[in-house]
Amino acid sequence: MNEQFSQPPAIDTSWIKRAGYIGPEGTWTHQSSLDLFGDQVELVPFSDGLFEAYENGCVDVACVPATTSLVGATPYLDQVLSLRSPTIIAEYPKVLSYSLMASKDASFSMIAKVVGHPVALQEVAGWLDENMPNVERESCTGATSFVAKQKSPSIAAFGPVLGAKLYNLQILRTGIEEGLHNVTRWWVLGHRTPAPTGFDRTTLHLRVSEQNLSCVLNRFSKDDLTVLNLYQRPTCERLDTHQYVIDVAEHVLTHPALAALAEIDGLRILGSYPRRY
C-alpha cells in the first residue's frame, strides 16, 4: 500500500487549539481528525455549522472530505467553495477499509437493512450487490450511532472500525472495498499558509463563462503551470457559466505566475500546501 495514502501529513499544531470536523463521532472524518491531530488539540464534532464555526473563528481548523477516487467530489466540496476566504493548509489522502457493524446480538444472515453515509453507500455498492443484493439500503449520516440507538439485530452500518469501538457494536465483516481504488482526500482548512516544501500543490477556484474558459487555460500553459486535476462544479445560476476546482503543481510563494493568477477575474487561490501524491 502506498505510504502517501496511509500516513497523515505533519501539521504544525502550535497555533491550533480546536479542530472541527463533520460529525458525529465514529465517522471517517472523525478517524481522519484523530490521525491528523491525535490528542494534541481539542476535536469538536459538528452535525451542522462547521463552516460557519471555521469562518467565525470558533475553531482554528476544519477537517473536510473533498474528493474520493470512487465517487469524485463530495457534497462538502461545494460548501468549501461558498466560503468567503477558505485557506487549505493540508491534504490527507487515506485508503478506506469499510466495516459492517451491528448490535452484539446480530448475525450476518439477520441483516435486512444497511445504513451509511450517502458517499459510503456508493463506495460499497459493488460489494453490496455481490454479497447482500436483497438488503435494503438507506442513506444516513452518523450511521453507526443510528444503529446503536436502534438496538435492532436486523440493521447494520458501514463505517470505520472506530465506530464499533465507540458505540459497542460488533464487526460482522471488515476490509470492504479496501485498496488504492478507494481513497478519500480530506482538506484541512486553516488560516496560515504553510511554507513551501519543494513538493507542493496549489488549489484554485475558477468561475468563468464558456466563452472565456479557453483563455484562462491558455494562460496556465503560457505560464508553464502543470495542471494536476480539474473538477467542474455547478454554479446553479447560468447554463453557460461554470466553476472549477483546479489543482496545479508548486507553491504560490515559489512560482511567480501563481500569484499573478489572482488578477484573473473570477479566480481565487484556495491554498498552497504540501503535496501528498
TrEMBL record:
Pathway: Amino-acid biosynthesis; L-phenylalanine biosynthesis; phenylpyruvate from prephenate: step 1/1. Keywords: Amino-acid biosynthesis, Aromatic amino acid biosynthesis, Lyase, Phenylalanine biosynthesis. GO terms for biological process: L-phenylalanine biosynthetic process. Its EC number is 4.2.1.51. This is prephenate dehydratase. InterPro entries: Preph_deHydtase. Gene3D superfamilies: 3.30.70.260, Periplasmic binding protein-like II (3.40.190.10). Residues 18-191 form the Prephenate dehydratase domain. GO terms for molecular function: prephenate dehydratase activity. It comes from Mesorhizobium metallidurans STM 2683. It catalyses: prephenate + H(+) = 3-phenylpyruvate + CO2 + H2O. GO terms for cellular component: cytoplasm. It holds the Pfam family PDT.
